[in-house]
Q: What sequence folds into this?
């Protein structure tokens, strides 16, 4: 068996051994715990991560995005599983670029297969209507976000599993810089936003689990010529946990007439409101469609519940604190690295 196939098989075996639900995003940090390895986050310089198999542990930088941190953690887990005699310090190129070294190729394949098992990839591909010859950068971006991996990692995995073609891969990679804006209904992401979420307001409440620093943009249909506008249900809602980072009214380009930006009578417009959670926790925001002179009579309402998780390193700190408070600790899954030979 080639080294690459061995690595992919080792990832599948490790997922099975840990009995993880492979239709859901993989919690790599929990998986590392359950393999009996220690995990430490640190502001590393020059390297993204390290595997220290002889010390039964891995290190991950705090200086990169959550998706890169998770990818690095899976890459280091791979080294612990596949290359248990070696201490390896990984620079960015070893984790993210194609590498001539066989052990790095193996770790990359393991990381991809571990974080993106086929069941999860196919479920999200169905959800975002990703099919051969029919895929958009926004669809790949949203699948990547849900799997908590980078755009490129998700696109390559979709091709590897033959859910998209090589031509599709080239096309979506060329459009990768546009996907966030596409997913946000054309609104540019605010500077420093992590993941992005576009939501269409509807009569049903929306529930989203996001991370502090993500941008959530909500699209409301709003027809100003009728006098109705969306207003916050609670005008006194504070900005401490969730900040409003954008609010604009616009006429969809398709319904604009040439050279005339003024809305015609009866013309449907839209309002796009962008929020950013800045503190962890649950927040509910609601809006009502009313006429300003008669704010009690709403003809539509929309509620968004945001559950904002802390950033990965902070999450990890809180997890360790809560584990220290809960005893006894669960025993780690028996982990025999000899199995993968
Ligand atoms: Zn490596």
A:
């Amino acid at each position: 068996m080639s080294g690459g196939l061995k690595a992919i098989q080792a990832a599948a075996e490790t997922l099975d051994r840990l009995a993880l639900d492979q239709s859901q995003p993989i919690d790599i940090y929990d998986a590392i715990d359950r393999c009996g390895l220690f995990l430490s986050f640190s502001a590393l310089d020059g390297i993204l991560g390290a595997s220290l198999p002889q010390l039964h542990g891995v290190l991950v930088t705090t200086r990169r995005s959550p998706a890169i941190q998770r990818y690095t953690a899976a890459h280091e887990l791979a080294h612990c599983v596949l290359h248990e005699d070696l201490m390896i310090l990984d620079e960015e190129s070893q984790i993210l670029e194609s590498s001539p070294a066989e052990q790095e190729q193996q770790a990359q394949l393991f990381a991809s297969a571990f974080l993106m098992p086929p069941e999860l990839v196919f479920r999200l591909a169905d959800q975002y209507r990703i099919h051969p010859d029919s895929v958009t950068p926004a669809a790949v971006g949203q699948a990547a976000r849900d799997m908590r991996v980078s755009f490129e990692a998700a696109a390559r995995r979709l091709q590897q599993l033959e859910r998209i073609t090589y031509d599709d891969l080239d096309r979506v990679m060329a459009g990768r810089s546009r996907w966030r804006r596409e997913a946000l209904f054309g609104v540019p992401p605010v500077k420093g936003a992590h993941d992005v979420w576009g939501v269409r307001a509807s009569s049903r409440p929306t529930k989203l689990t996001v991370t502090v620093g993500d941008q959530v943009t909500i699209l409301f249909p709003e027809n100003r010529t009728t006098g109705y506008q969306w207003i916050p249900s609670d005008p006194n809602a504070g900005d401490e946990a969730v900040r409003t980072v954008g609010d604009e009214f616009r006429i969809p380009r398709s319904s604009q007439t040439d050279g005339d930006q003024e809305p015609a009578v009866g013309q449907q417009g839209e309002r796009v409101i962008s929020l950013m959670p800045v503190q962890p926790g649950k927040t509910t925001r609601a809006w009502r469609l009313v006429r300003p002179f008669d704010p009690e009579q709403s003809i539509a309402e929309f509620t968004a519940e945001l559950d904002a998780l802390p950033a990965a390193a902070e999450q990890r700190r809180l997890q360790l604190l809560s584990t220290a408070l809960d005893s006894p600790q669960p025993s780690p899954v028996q982990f025999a690295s000899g199995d993968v030979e």
